[in-house]
Design goal:
Blueprint: E1 2-3, E2 6-7, E3 12-17, E4 24-30, H1 33-52, H2 55-71, H3 73-84, H4 88-106, E5 113-116, E6 122-129, E7 132-136, H5 142-155, E8 159-163, H6 170-178, E9 188-190, H7 197-203, E10 209-213, H8 216-226, E11 232-236, E12 241-245, H9 251-263, E13 273-279, H10 283-296, H11 315-330, E14 334-336, E15 352-355, H12 362-365, E16 372-378, H13 381-389, E17 393-394, E18 396-400, H14 404-412, E19 418-421, E20 436-437, E21 440-441, H15 446-451, E22 454-461
Parallel strand pairs: 7-8, 7-10, 8-9, 10-11, 12-13, 12-18, 13-16, 15-16, 18-19
Antiparallel strand pairs: 1-2, 3-4, 5-6, 6-22, 11-21, 14-15, 17-20
The protein binds nicotinamide-adenine-dinucleotide.
Amino acid sequence: MSIDGTLVGSAQEFAVINPATEETVARAPDASEAQLDEAVNAARSAFPAWREMAWSDRANALRAMAERVLAHQDVLSDLLTQEQGKPLRDARGEIIRSAEWLNETASLSATEEQRISAAGRIHQVRHVPLGVIGAISPWNFPVSLAIWKIAPALLTGNTVVLKPSPYTPLTVLKIGELFLDLLPPGVLNVITGGDALGPLLTQHPGVDKIAFTGSTATGRAVMRSASATLKRLTLELGGNDPAIVLPDADVDVIASKLFWAAFRNAGQVCVASKRIYVHEAIYDQLIQALSKLAQENLPKPGHAENATIGPVQNKAQFERVRTLIESVRTAGGRLIEPAGVLPQTGYFIAPTLVDNPPEDWPIVQEEPFGPVVPLLRYSDIDDAITRANASPYGLGASVWGTDTDAATEVAARLEAGTVWINSGAAIDPVAPFGGHKQSGLGVENAREGLLEYTNIQVIAHSA
Ligand code: NAD
């Protein structure tokens, strides 16, 4: 772990499992409560000098971090595939994208504004850092989702204690080590631990904000815990994203994009298409095209040549997804599962389609977060929109069709933080990203996300 500019281990450790082999990749430190205190205290002590540093110097630190990540992309991608399971080229993509994110964030600013009242009073509207940020990230994109928090937090003058998921701590620990000589001691601390560590961080009185990505259930616990000291919060939570395919969509053009919108990262994407509403005019053609793609993309270990889909990341998630699939079979639903033999060890599930299940089944109502997706037939667009919106979630959505004006009209009626037209989830650093309803609170990325790491301060001058 990186605490106060030094690499440290801990008395207790836990095993990190490779989901493709079920073997131990390495043992990671299980931070004690005293080590958490040390990390928070180090971040507190480092805060005043870091806050005073010129914005451009902090931006340059981010650029140096990007360069360091790129210089070590081979070892980081390999480690990410070992612990997360994703295909090696996707792991490399995540590493490169994270470096780009650091650079893109470095170019943002939170410039001060002046507002003059009718009476001639001048107000300086400033954005000042909050202090110590507790950043908590999940296991599906361990590096990207950590960088999304570290980059804006550091740029705005905050210091950070980062806690990655215990399922995927290794690549982020390595990145903490790589950044050690690029930042003053205590500015970025990376600690790992089991289930007890997250709650200790969210209730810690020395932490000013929690930036959290994970499930909605944990998000609620984080909010409760943060309330004791009124910590600022950004919560990026679960989703059950609808995709609406309009009758004029060209199946040959969209099938592949839609397939990857649902199955990239073995479906373990917060904004994966998780319910695909298809107009009856093209339903049969689309389900055929998608099942062909499923057959062509059987899961393989992430290090295998030509792997396009890896295993599910951990055993609990593997069991959960299998239970959901079995619930469809038991209830008499129709599953479309590709033929072929899967590896004997590892948490492999073939990309599975569910043919028009009733709307109230768990496979439609819950977020599977794995390689299974229901296709749902509709004939009336108003009905499709009502069904798409009938969810406590509101993270992302997509609309697919040839007439993009018509698709955009449908998009505007969907209750979601981002609606993509004719594309799977493409999260871009220029666009604020966040959930409506129970998918979250606040946004990440772009200027809007940056400002969530600041308090507004007004300096009012007498007229
Ligand atoms: P999770 O909620 O189980 O864990 C997320 C993180 O929270 C981990 O680091 C975990 O150790 C920590 N944690 C667990 N309990 C805690 C507690 N009581 N207090 C503080 N921290 C605690 O989520 P996961 O299973 O790692 O990730 C999958 C979920 O994340 C899915 O629901 C997915 O949709 C969501 N997700 C959302 C986004 C987004 O941007 N909205 C992105 C990726 C994943």
